[in-house]
């Protein structure tokens, strides 16, 4: 099985109450994910609050994560930005020890044209020491990678190996699945529609809820990849409300609340994010009890 088939988890970055990175909690979380059966971990994606970490903090988190994982699962580094040349320089200088690929979100805020998006990824592909997974998340970036641009990048660059698709646009997904090269990976970036995307031809998920429930999610994903959707449906339905709560008051505040209830790490987030409400916390606790 390809190393990126199955369940990837966009891991949170645990913080101490004073906002510093909590490395002991990060180790506990990594072990929780590995023991839960996930296939790979994404370090410092959006869920890792990478936008609020300094360059030195990122370097230390990446190094610590690679050392702690110790090749037990595959590793992906989240490296993106809206300054193409700065992002390319960061990718070129990245210490690849222990890592298998780079996940790079489409540029945010600038709202580039499709040609601008293509040229951005072209610049990254030309310098990257690792394979690149595109990341389309228009709810955060303000623009969407079109199906045509995704397929063009997939065909033009051998080291652009897949896309994390979080647009929720099934018309766009239909076009990608129809036109992409056979070995180009389409990975769900939306927890609620992972089952549906695998049914269309997707190879798995890069998940947020997997931080809290790696065993339940990875088992369900493997059932889907085995084309046993009937077996996967009960857990898919069981996770619907829990997944909704993870994003109802912002991510990763929701999943950090769940991790606090599971005694894995605290719920501290860095501004401008804030903790969820007491009502939200109570609802999450209830869903954890239901799911077991």
TrEMBL record:
<dbReference type="GO" id="GO:0009089">
    <property type="term" value="P:lysine biosynthetic process via diaminopimelate"/>
</dbReference>
<feature type="binding site">
    <location>
        <position position="47"/>
    </location>
    <ligand>
        <name>pyruvate</name>
    </ligand>
</feature>
<keyword id="KW-0028">Amino-acid biosynthesis</keyword>
<comment type="function">
    <text>Catalyzes the condensation of (S)-aspartate-beta-semialdehyde [(S)-ASA] and pyruvate to 4-hydroxy-tetrahydrodipicolinate (HTPA).</text>
</comment>
<dbReference type="GO" id="GO:0008840">
    <property type="term" value="F:4-hydroxy-tetrahydrodipicolinate synthase activity"/>
</dbReference>
<comment type="subunit">
    <text>Homotetramer; dimer of dimers.</text>
</comment>
<dbReference type="InterPro" id="IPR020625">
    <property type="entry name" value="Schiff_base-form_aldolases_AS"/>
</dbReference>
<feature type="active site" description="Schiff-base intermediate with substrate">
    <location>
        <position position="164"/>
    </location>
</feature>
<dbReference type="InterPro" id="IPR005263">
    <property type="entry name" value="DapA"/>
</dbReference>
<feature type="site" description="Part of a proton relay during catalysis">
    <location>
        <position position="46"/>
    </location>
</feature>
<feature type="binding site">
    <location>
        <position position="206"/>
    </location>
    <ligand>
        <name>pyruvate</name>
    </ligand>
</feature>
<comment type="similarity">
    <text>Belongs to the DapA family.</text>
</comment>
<keyword id="KW-0220">Diaminopimelate biosynthesis</keyword>
<dbReference type="Pfam" id="PF00701">
    <property type="entry name" value="DHDPS"/>
</dbReference>
<keyword id="KW-0457">Lysine biosynthesis</keyword>
<keyword id="KW-0704">Schiff base</keyword>
<keyword id="KW-0963">Cytoplasm</keyword>
<feature type="active site" description="Proton donor/acceptor">
    <location>
        <position position="135"/>
    </location>
</feature>
<feature type="site" description="Part of a proton relay during catalysis">
    <location>
        <position position="109"/>
    </location>
</feature>
<keyword id="KW-0456">Lyase</keyword>
<protein>
    <recommendedName>
        <fullName>4-hydroxy-tetrahydrodipicolinate synthase</fullName>
        <ecNumber>4.3.3.7</ecNumber>
    </recommendedName>
</protein>
<dbReference type="InterPro" id="IPR013785">
    <property type="entry name" value="Aldolase_TIM"/>
</dbReference>
<dbReference type="GO" id="GO:0019877">
    <property type="term" value="P:diaminopimelate biosynthetic process"/>
</dbReference>
<dbReference type="InterPro" id="IPR002220">
    <property type="entry name" value="DapA-like"/>
</dbReference>
<comment type="pathway">
    <text>Amino-acid biosynthesis; L-lysine biosynthesis via DAP pathway; (S)-tetrahydrodipicolinate from L-aspartate: step 3/4.</text>
</comment>
<dbReference type="GO" id="GO:0005829">
    <property type="term" value="C:cytosol"/>
</dbReference>
């Amino acid at each position: 099985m390809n190393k990126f088939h199955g369940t990837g988890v966009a891991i949170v970055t645990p913080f101490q109450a004073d906002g510093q990175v909590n490395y002991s909690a990060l180790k506990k979380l990594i072990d929780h994910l590995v023991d839960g059966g996930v296939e790979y971990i994404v370090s410092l994606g959006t869920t890792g609050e990478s936008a609020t970490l300094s360059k030195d903090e990122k370097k230390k988190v990446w190094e610590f994560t690679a050392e702690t994982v110790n090749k037990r699962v595959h590793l992906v580094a989240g490296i993106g930005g809206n300054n193409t040349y700065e992002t390319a320089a960061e990718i070129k200088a990245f210490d690849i020890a222990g890592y298998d690929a780079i996940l790079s979100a489409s540029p945010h805020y600038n709202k580039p044209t499709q040609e601008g998006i293509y040229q951005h990824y072209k610049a990254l592909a030309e310098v990257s020491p690792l394979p690149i997974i595109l990341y389309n998340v228009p709810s955060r970036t303000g623009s969407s990678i079109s199906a045509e641009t995704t397929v063009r990048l997939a065909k033009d660059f051998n080291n652009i190996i897949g896309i994390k698709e979080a647009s929720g646009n099934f018309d766009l997904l239909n076009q990608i699945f129809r036109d992409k090269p056979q070995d180009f990976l389409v990975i769900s970036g939306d927890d609620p529609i992972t089952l549906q995307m695998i049914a269309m031809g997707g190879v798995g998920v890069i998940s947020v809820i997997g931080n809290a429930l790696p065993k339940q999610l990875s088992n369900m994903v493997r059932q889907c990849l085995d084309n046993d959707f009937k077996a996967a449906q009960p857990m898919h339905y069981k996770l619907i409300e829990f997944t909704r709560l993870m994003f109802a008051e912002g991510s990763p505040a929701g999943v950090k609340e769940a991790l606090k209830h599971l005694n894995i790490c605290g719920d501290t987030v860095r501004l401008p994010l804030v903790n969820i409400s007491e009502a939200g916390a109570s609802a999450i606790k209830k869903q954890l009890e239901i799911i077991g």
